[in-house]
Amino acid sequence: MKSPSDAAGAAADRTLFNRALAEAIAAPDVRSVPARLCQACVDLLDVTGASVSLSGGPGLRTLWWSSDPVAAELAEVQYTLGDGPCQSALGLVAPVLAGDLAQGVDARRWPLFAQRAVELGVRAVFSLPLGSAAVATGTLDLYRREQGPLSARDKAFAFPAADAITFALIRIHSDAAAQAGSDEEELASWLEGAESDHEEVHYATGMLMVQLGVDPHHALARLRAYAFAQGRTVTEVARDVIALKLSFDE
């Protein structure tokens, strides 16, 4: 049973969380709401950084916002490898909470990602799916430099924050669709616009399909494998392929 001081602390946290959610959601520009909610997670929770990534299907993933370079690098590493907590959260449409990437189950589950994350000074990553109960359209990703689980207190804010980010993205999508209906020159949807961040990868994948005579899945896998072997991001390697500085002969 919680003591009176525990109950008072929980009530104070609820008030703090509700105020933070309300202030973020009330932002005049709805496109800033996901970033505001992400930053609120960093400010209020026992985490070091956060990011929001969007997914347009297998192999299509892009970073919407990150709190710092390490959060962005974690997202890029998972995109390069096609593996990691956020990829698992997308596939499972469920939260994936990795409390210690340096050892144990989490290190064995994603060995390559875990190795790179530890090299970046990251010990714990928590990925919460965005979207509906059936389909994940992105993830809210939190990371911490110290190992340990996401506490019940932190879950009490992070999970509603992920829901609020989903609603904000739906509203952004709806606004973009309405605008596209009135102006054919602005047909690009919110996700299409976000995916442009990885256009180089899509182009390079197409070039490898021709060079190797393989399907898109295998072409992207070759691109990712080469990037990992060279210690580079898949976007960096894709730029070399497009510039004809790099070719895959077999």
Strand content: 5-15%
- Which strand order do you get reading across the main beta sheet? 2-1-5-4-3
Rg over alpha carbons: 20 Å
Continuous helix count:
11
Q: Give the topology string: H per helix, E per strand.
A: HHEEHHEHHEEHHHHH
The averaged pLDDT comes out at 83
Q: What sort of overall outline do the alpha carbons produce when their principal axes are compared?
A: globular
How many angstroms does the end-to-end distance come to?
Answer: 65 Å
**Main sheet: strands, sense, barrel:** 5 strands, antiparallel
Structural class: alpha+beta
Helix % is 55-70%
- The parts where pLDDT drops under 50 for at least 5 residues are 182-188
Identify the notable features of this structure and list them briefly.
single chain; globular; 14% strand; 250 residues
Describe this structure in words.
By secondary structure, this protein is α+β, with helices and mostly antiparallel strands. It is built from eleven helices and five strands. The protein has a five-stranded antiparallel beta sheet with strand order 2-1-5-4-3, sandwiched between helices. α10 packs across α11. The model is unreliable at 182-188 (pLDDT under 50).
Fold blueprint:
Elements: H1 4-25, H2 33-44, E1 49-57, E2 60-66, H3 69-81, H4 85-92, E3 96-98, H5 104-109, H6 111-119, E4 124-131, E5 136-144, H7 152-182, H8 190-195, H9 199-212, H10 216-230, H11 234-242
Antiparallel strand pairs: 1-2, 1-5, 3-4, 4-5
Helix pairs in contact: 1-2, 1-7, 2-7, 3-6, 9-10, 9-11, 10-11
